[in-house]
Design brief:
With about 475 residues, the chain is α+β, with helices and mostly antiparallel strands. Helices cover about 15% and strands about 20% of the residues.
């Protein structure tokens, strides 16, 4: 669910699923500073900045020496953007090949990423802190601790100083202990088109000792000399960052690492899909050509009918097969180049990922519909212990949609999700307990017990809940107490 981000450093994370960041080789860590520094705004502050004038400007870097071990970390990071007056945010990504992950000898072309006018509103915030442990850090079940004044990890809105709820973890998707990325995951999607500051302090090693800052960051923090060109180019930027952090009661001297990034605009995330929907429907205004190729009655428990259909639709790719690339017109928007026939499977009943993944659109489902899209109500049924889709993602989406869970709830303590009495009219979430052991709270998949993914189709009470919601808009669980399969 939760929007994807570029794979950088030791790996990537698309959302708040159980998928880890993986382990890819990375580009060289040589740093190149663009001779022209992009200037955004100048900021006045009463906070002591050590005599350096705060000026929000970013040098363009191939790699950031704040994390010398891995190119492109920390990520996302405004030093990988340039000014673009035509972009809704005024900036555009400018990632280099050096920042691309290397897997199987293949280096992705950064040009497709560089169409974005900012970074994902929901991707993992990644760094590398050699020797880091998770001692004292907020977890997926203690998210509220991230908002406490002494939280070791902090994410703030640069303009308002508001703290963003999150949890922090190490990348556990591989077995190399000394190469685990340090990841911060926001509990709810960030606002589009906004600047955020990430701060890390008080992270401990396995001897319970605070980690040292990298030489480049220490030079910025302590205003000591450095031969690193990007340090000198960022003195004014970090005067601004440190001032904003101190305004949020985060002491400069305590910092082990800090950086800023800006999120992409709504137009950037949803514009392609809305354009293709509107143009595609106009191209087939007399109806979509299709042929039903097979009908199967009662194919599985809970399914009344399965239809297999071949459908001819406008093609926006250079190749209709897997791996096709989006084609664009002179206006920079996707352009249909032909038509293609695709198989469609319908079962009754039952990014770049940001531009295709639900996390990029969830904020618009209920409260802020996209142009030409009606407001909707949503019923979310969640299987606790799902092996394929982490319930952490369901919780992030529930917070984004602003929906409560129906009581009595199996987990009434979920951060930022209210519990309401039933019957309840409107959007809501219901969790079902399949009696499995506790889910992992680190980024590895749930594997204990029998996978409950898809099992709700066989639960009569769940079917009754769906039927009533679709017919009347009222949510009722028909469970005796908190819901389980029985």
């Amino acid at each position: 669910m939760i929007g994807a981000t570029l794979l950088a450093g030791t790996g990537c994370s698309d959302d708040a699923s159980d998928e880890g960041a993986g382990q890819d080789e990375v580009g060289e860590t040589e740093t190149e500073t663009d001779s022209e520094t992009e200037t955004e705004t100048e900021t006045e502050t009463e906070t002591d900045t050590g005599g350096v004038e705060p000026v929000v400007e970013w040098p363009l870097l191939d790699c950031d020496p704040l994390v010398p071990e891995h190119c492109a970390m920390p990520f996302p990071n405004n030093v990988y953007t340039v000014e673009d007056a035509d972009a809704p945010t005024g900036r555009r990504l400018a990632l280099s090949e050096a920042a691309m992950p290397v897997g199987g000898g293949h280096v992705p072309d950064p040009s497709s990423f560089n169409r974005s006018d900012g970074f994902s509103t929901g991707g993992a915030l990644m760094a590398f802190l050699p020797g880091a442990t998770v001692e004292g850090l907020a977890t997926p079940v203690t998210i509220g601790e991230s908002l406490e004044p002494d939280s070791p990890t902090v994410v703030i809105d640069a303009e308002t100083g508001e703290r963003m709820a999150h949890w922090a973890e190490l990348d556990m998707s591989h077995g190399v202990d000394d190469q685990r990325a340090f990841m911060i995951r926001v509990a709810k999607q960030l606002e589009p088109g906004r600047r955020y500051i990430v701060a890390i302090r008080g992270v401990l090693d396995d001897q319970a000792q605070p980690l040292a800052a990298s030489p480049a960051f220490a030079a910025l923090r302590d205003e000591t000399p450095s031969e690193e060109p990007s340090v000198e180019a960022r003195r004014g930027l970090y005067a601004d960052i440190f001032a904003r952090l101190e305004d949020a009661d985060i002491a400069r001297a305590d910092l082990q690492l800090a950086w800023d990034f800006s999120t992409s605009s709504v137009e950037n995330t949803t514009g392609w899909a809305v354009h293709m929907r509107d143009e595609g429907m106009a191209l087939v205004d007399e109806g979509i050509d299709y042929a039903i190729t097979n009908v199967t009655m009662d194919p599985a428990p809970g399914l009344a009918m399965r239809l297999e259909i071949d459908m001819e639709v406008p093609l926006y790719l250079d190749d209709p097969g897997a791996g096709g690339s989006m084609q664009f017109g002179p206006d920079g928007l996707p352009e249909a180049v032909a038509t293609a026939t695709y198989p469609v499977l319908v079962e009754l009943i039952q990014l770049e990922w940001d531009r295709a993944e639900p996390a990029g659109y969830s904020r618009h489902v209920i409260l802020d519909p996209l142009p030409g899209t009606a407001e909707k109500e949503v019923l979310s049924l969640v299987s606790i212990g799902d092996h394929q889709v982490s319930t952490l993602g369901a919780h992030v989406m529930a917070r984004e949609l602003g929906i409560p869970q129906i009581g009595p709830a199996n987990r009434p303590e979920l951060f930022g999700i209210d519990v309401v009495d039933q019957p309840y009219t409107g959007s809501a979430m219901v969790e079902y307990d399949f009696g499995l052991p506790p889910e992992p709270i680190i980024n590895v998949p749930m594997t204990a017990g029998e996978d409950p993914h898809g099992k709700l189709a066989e639960v009569e009470a769940a079917a009754m809940t769906v039927e009533q919601f679709l017919r009347t808009g009222v949510v009722e669980t028909f469970c005796d107490g908190a819901c389980d399969p029985n």
